[in-house]
């Protein structure tokens, strides 16, 4: 039922838009921003269930509407699904960073863990005690022994 209502909504939007460039004429309004923010991801994203996406693609005026807004307000994208251009050499830098991403994440976690443990030891929250006999020849009382004494 949800898909049926969503398809109906897309069809009604398509009928309302008609052959206009925007919903209220030649210049965009807040409705255009709202509609585009819902349609563009639906049109461009890879979805596990493509029924609604297929219906949107069948409504040519809504597809043209999204493409027009993408090329007008996001010119580096031009309605295509690739990233904005980088200054010379940045693409190579990104490719080199990817193999080290996992290592950097692991190092960050380890540094955080060492910092937390260091703080816990220095502040006295955690302390290391030797097992065995205490200073006066007495062993520390455990919780079980404490319950037996009561």
UniProtKB/TrEMBL annotation:
Keywords: Membrane, Transmembrane, Transmembrane helix. Pfam families: GST_C_6. The keyword Nucleotide-binding does not apply. It comes from the Eukaryota. The keyword Chloroplast does not apply. GO terms for cellular component: SAM complex. Residues 6-69 form the Metaxin glutathione S-transferase domain. One of its GO terms (biological process) is mitochondrion organization. InterPro entries: Glutathione-S-Trfase_C_sf, Metaxin_GST, Mito_Protein_Transport_Metaxin. The chain crosses the membrane at residues 106-128. This is MTX1 protein. The gene is Mtx1.
